[in-house]
Give the backbone structure.
Amino acid sequence: MNSLNAQTAVTAGTSDASVVGFADRWYARNDLGISAIDSHAHVFVKGLPMARDRRHAPDYSATADDYVRHMAANHISHGVLVQPSFLGTDNSFLLAVLKRYPSKFRGVVVVDPSISEAQLQALAQLGVVGMRLNLIGVQMPDLTAARWTRFVQRLIDLDWHIEVHRQARDLPYLVGTLLRQGAKVVVDHFGRPDPQSGVDDPGFDYLLRQAHTGQVWVKLSAAYRTAQRPGDPSGLHFGQGATQKLIQAFSSSHLLWGSDWPHTQHQEVIDYAASKSALSAWVSDPVQRQIIMRSTAQKLFKFNH
């Protein structure tokens, strides 16, 4: 789908980009500053071209209108849209949302290291602030290869972060290699420790020990993707223990909250409101929650107001 068609599809399944949807009305009236930032959500519609090597293919749409309804109901003023794995490097739908609502959203894209400098600059101008390495179920790249080291340096020059989504056992190689090059690294979904090991996973311990670098941020998101127990499908128990260890190591200044909406493949165990309320269970101090949901994300994702 090209950018024009993707922008047309933004408005909740309509065929006319001039149609004013819920998100348009929200955007027009909601300019009261930053109340809270959702650092991890996805938008897409049925019918978009799918990546050949995708792990799954949703049979539903998750439009900007749908997402903004959840934001409005839960007092979230800004969001970070992350390219989902099943769309590969075709970021056009995400970019159309950024273009339509520029002050409210930032983007994290998936691109090939061969992308041109002009294309990277165009992405930055639309509000892209990071590049995602979504490596669940795929072969690990050789980040020490010349094509990757050159690419990472270009991202550093743009002041983008690199978002890593991979099981915790591989974080020492991935995060360590990126840190040695000087990159800012955002680790997805608590670092994805092994469900059986939880916070005792050696990869999670490695993550905790990187707090001293000041170059690593961790998303308190999608605990259900690392749920330890049959009786804990939403990951609430796991998230409680993991969050406490992360706060002790990183403090709230390097932690982020994300809804992971629309909770692909886990819609039966979580919804947006429950995802937000989980943070209150994990972080009892309202000052710390405010830092996680506003201050830290505002600075990292470059929200102006």
Q: What stands out?
A: The chain has one domain: 3-300.
